[in-house]
């Protein structure tokens, strides 16, 4: 009873101080806090706290409410919801040391075995804080710890996955590792609603960075998944709209369009600096597209054909094909004597709408050819029968 009375007195003191220090528009929240806390309605209190933390007028008071009020009953509420509140509140702490201490202190109080998702979310948030303040090694260590747990879980909430993939993408961006950034950024977008969860500026930056990473990643040779993602709409009507056109150009393997857009590269110095790599990449994608467009029984190509498709000098064709083989974009063999390339396999691709349309036309032709054969053979079979 004594402890209950002490808690009641602390609650009254907290509520009284809050009512005198906050705008009148926030007072109904604190009255609700008093009522729900007194009745031990922890779930309803959690929901009311989220409403409070999302209220713009409450922003100057969020840290104080969490530290003086929420911590009193933090073990009684859902631990994942607790961490989500803490992550939201931590954004108001500008001092790097205090910010990190706020999150790491909570990590020490969370029961990792009972709430692994909460632990992952907190580790990802701590990693992101370290990244913002320049601790790349600490970021990577926390990312790895989070992944070890996340990789064992099933039915993970989107907010937890988003936190991990979001910080992983930002880490690889800071390291200029384009392939990992591209993959983790797309995974992050799969966990959020860009229209609701990202500002227009954030959508534009994400689309821009995805485009740049797609161009410069040494392992990305199919942009279909990105081209079908609505995030690219953020580039429309901006100074970066030409990057969207360039993405479609690469996916088509269209060297003519690539050369037409090349004068714009100086607007993105990193593309200009890597022009030689991009030129080779568009040639490889032109080769892939040329193979993809052919029937499976018509994939033996002369060096001259490859040179024409890729607009390369004849003496550079063999090197290009060897590059495609080493990257596992194609499988096959090279006949140096007859100067021919036989392709037995081409890397599976996420197709753009235009490529799907082309594939549909090829399937329709194949069906028509089968029907023609059937009509020709059927009378002969009936006659012999």
UniProtKB/TrEMBL annotation:
Protein name, entry field: Proteasome 26S subunit
Protein family (similarity comment): Belongs to the proteasome subunit S11 family.
GO biological process terms, semicolon-separated: ubiquitin-dependent protein catabolic process
InterPro entries named in the record: PCI_dom, PSD13_N, PSMD13, WH_DNA-bd_sf
GO CC term, one of those recorded: cytosol
Keywords linked to the UniProt accession: Proteasome
Pfam families listed in its UniProt record: PCI (PF01399), PSD13_N (PF22037)
Domain PCI: 180-348
Organism: Coprinopsis cinerea (strain Okayama-7 / 130 / ATCC MYA-4618 / FGSC 9003)
An example molecular function term from Gene Ontology annotations: structural molecule activity
């Amino acid at each position: 009873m004594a402890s209950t009375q002490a808690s009641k007195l602390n609650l009254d003191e907290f509520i009284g101080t809050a009512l005198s220090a906050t705008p009148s528009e926030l007072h109904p929240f604190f009255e609700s806090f008093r009522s729900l806390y007194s009745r031990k309605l922890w779930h309803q209190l959690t929901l009311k706290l989220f409403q409070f933390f999302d209220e713009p007028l409450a922003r100057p008071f969020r840290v104080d409410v969490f530290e003086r009020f929420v911590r009193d009953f933090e073990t009684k509420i859902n631990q994942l919801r607790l961490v989500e509140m803490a992550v939201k509140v931590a954004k108001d702490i500008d001092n790097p040391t205090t910010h990190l201490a706020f999150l790491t202190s909570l990590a020490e109080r969370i029961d990792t075995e009972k709430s692994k998702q909460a632990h992952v979310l907190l580790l990802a948030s701590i990693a992101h804080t370290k990244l913002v303040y320049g601790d790349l090694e600490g970021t990577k260590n926390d990312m790895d710890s989070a992944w070890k747990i996340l990789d064992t879980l099933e039915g993970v909430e989107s907010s937890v996955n988003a936190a991990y993939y979001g910080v992983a993408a930002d880490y690889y961006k800071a390291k200029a590792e384009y392939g990992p950034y591209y993959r983790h950024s797309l995974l992050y977008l799969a966990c959020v609603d860009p229209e609701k969860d990202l500002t227009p500026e954030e959508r534009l930056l994400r689309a821009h960075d995805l485009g740049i990473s797609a161009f410069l990643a040494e392992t990305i040779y199919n942009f279909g998944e990105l081209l079908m993602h609505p995030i690219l709409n953020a580039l429309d009507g901006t100074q970066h709209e030409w990057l969207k056109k360039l993405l479609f150009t690469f996916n088509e393997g269209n060297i003519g369009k690539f050369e037409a857009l090349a004068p714009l590269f100086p607007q993105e110095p990193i593309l200009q600096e890597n022009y030689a790599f991009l030129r080779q990449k568009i040639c490889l994608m032109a080769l892939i597209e040329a193979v993809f467009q052919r029937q499976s029984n018509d994939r033996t190509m002369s060096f001259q054909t490859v040179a024409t498709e890729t607009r390369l000098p004849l003496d550079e064709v063999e090197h290009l094909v060897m590059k495609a083989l080493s990257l596992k974009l194609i499988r096959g063999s090279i006949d140096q004597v007859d100067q021919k390339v036989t392709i037995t396999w081409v890397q599976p691709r996420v197709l753009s709408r235009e490529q799907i349309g082309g594939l549909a036309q090829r399937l329709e032709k194949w069906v028509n050819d089968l029907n023609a054969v059937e009509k020709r053979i059927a009378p002969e079979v009936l006659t012999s029968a």
